[in-house]
User: Fold this.
Amino acid sequence: MSKIHIPTPLRQYVGKQSTVDVKAATVGEAITTLVAQHPDLQRHLYTEDGKLRAFVNLYLNDEDIRYLQKEATAVKEGDNISIVPSIAGGAA
Amino acid sequence: MATITTEIPVTLNKDEILRYSRHLIMPEVGMEGQQKLKAARVLCIGAGGLGSPLALYLGAAGVGTLGLVDFDVVDYTNLQRQIIHSTADVGRKKLDSAADKLTAINPFLNIQKFDTRLSSENALELFRDFDIIADGTDNFPTRYLVNDACVLTGKPNVYGSIFRFEGQASVFATKNGPCYRCLYPEPPPPGLVPSCAEGGVLGILPGLVGVMQATEVIKLILGVGDPLIGRLLLIDALGMKFRELKLRKNPDCPVCGTHPTVTKLIDYDQFCGIRGEEQKVEAGAGEMQVEELKRRLDAKEDLYILDVREPHEFQICNIGGNLIPLNDLPKRVNELDSSREIVVHCKMGGRSAKAVEFLRQSGFKKVHNLAGGINAWAERVDPKVPKY
Assistant:
């Protein structure tokens, strides 16, 4: 199993959980599994043509998967996957 | 490491030496460090949630020149977290309120107030006279603007951002480090990521993150420690967990990469898709004003009021609507009678506009969006209803 860390803005779509455990061989598969379990996440993570949204970054442990093998990056038992969307809040 | 060169030799007088005693006795700061702080010029964008602790600590620490950019006025909803402002400041310009507090803490500061909205027209000129930019803004267009202007002027961007219980901090746009666009090349489409005004924020969170930004600013000035360059710190206040992710400078980054396509400031509202969104809301036919709703309810007309806020918001105040939170609407739409006239409201009109759009697509013909939401109702119809 590997752990997917869900950022606060997206927790409402996964039953308020902060992490979700999934069994997957790659980061892409892990996210697909997550979305299959929680379909409301779909439009927040993917564009209408099925591409991962540009403002959603995926990390395997502390590495950005864009600099690994992207969604094909292999996942090992006990790895941490983080979804890190951009947030803008600050002043108002 | 990014260090700030001291151009003007500065000295500390007796009062300043006493004031900064706890800095001066540490070798990592010392007299030389304190003089660097005094010579430093830091521009804080926004005197709000992040800007409050940031400016207070930088001022107390003796950062000699503090620039503040803000165009806003203090309101009651700010006081839960914007600790540089007090109740008596409600209605005053944030700049004036903040400058008063900073001067009270440290009369040796040179405070420069910029009563303006940061824009593509003024950013480069504003940034030119400062060494470090601290980004405490609250929206995506300004985030990208600050980032690009920092890259173009070569000034480090000390970044902090918050939402609900979560924060991010980093240092962008140093000479060899990544910038905000290396992390997020594109902003989210409008409406997909809620703002703090819609989503809320834990009051202490900007305190935590703003103080981290202040720490990074001080480290950059002193040239000590390991700044958050190439690292993104994630703060989860609920779990009280701090995680760190690696950030890389993207060689294909449109602004700081090897072949940049953004070489001057652009229209950031357009880049973030804001204009289109505004037009869509304006063009939304079937908006109902609160006065009209009041008149029709008083005339006992048959109207079904649908409240699409969350249950905890309903507890704060309600106007007797039927509660179905926006996210539950798709699965509970069969509870609604499409033959009746429906008026949808939320807090300010944003979520209800989405609900109306959804209902229309689902075949509802007689739906209206209550313009301005329950806050407009509280303001213009029933003052007994609290605004929040």
